[in-house]
Amino acid sequence: MKNTRYIFDEQKYTPEGMVSVSQIQTFLSCRKKWEYSYIENIRPRVERSYLTIGKLCHKGMQVAMQNAWKDKEAGLDTSFEYGFYKSWMEAGFRAMEEEHRKYMAENDFLKEEMLDVEKMLDDAEDVFEQAYLEFKPWNYDVLTIKKDGKLIPALELHFKIPCPPTKGLHGYIDAILIDKTTGFIWCTDYKFRKSLAPDEDEANNIQNAVYAYACKKMGIPITGTMTWQHVNTPAAVPTLLKNGTVSRAKIKTTWETYLQFCLDHDLDPENYREEMQEKLADIEWYRATYEYRNDVTLTRIWNQCIAPVAKQIKSAHGKKAVNFRSLYPWNCKMCQYQSLCQAELRDYDADQVRKLMYTEYTKNK
Fold first, then answer.
1. 68 lies in a domain?
2. Which residue range forms the structural domain that includes residue 135?
């Protein structure tokens, strides 16, 4: 693809003054929460930066698909039969390990914390391997685009599109992939979650609607969006009973994990296959949700949902702006600013709460 007019130019722009989907979502949920985050630039005070299994798995998928793209560009056959997907997966593992090493080097941990921190990497690699093989990356080609005269893969694609009266809306698209079988082009978002969201939620997925609109502005003829979500916990390990057999209880694991456990304990998996393979088959580990939004739908979502909020956000920066609180149990229960918000409402020492529990960020994207 040669139309790169709306691909983010790091030499020309910085994200300051722009809006993002996450900022719009925060504003819609509670304007006071938005003010804390985007005007005061405060965050809960934590002892260290935060790393999750989902972030590690995202990194693994990004680097694995980058290597797949490189092999394709080199003229190699990237189908399953040639087995290059194994080297892509290994590259993903290495990237995850490097990300984890960096996290370890930048933060101090108590001795009793180390086991959990190290286990996080082990769990993330288990989740990534399972998700990667279920995703079947050999079935896709990464879309190639042209930026600054160079061909690059459409992975972690940073875009900027006009969004007056702000300086623009920017975001990162995980991947734009071409299905080798159908030729369909999918704007793809990876999600690693505790539980899988139902398909019907996708119609209200404002992030994917905006990303599809951005693809339209960039001239990328996507078929639609694909939200590919996977459980963010590894398959459970079966229990070895006192009589030397493996428990046949239904746990959240895969038949492959169960089979390997049998082999590791010198037990014949065929003694368990008929019962356990069927018992574990209906456990859902991943779900791909596809959404087709035509140009009319994308334009209406932009004009009726995004553009009006961007205007309100611009106005909310004014000195006379009153950013009200959306005080609802379901809205406040998980809010990171709940302590400060309640201190202000109850006439507690809010300045002390702000000082003790929050820290200011000088840059907010």
1. yes
2. 46-141
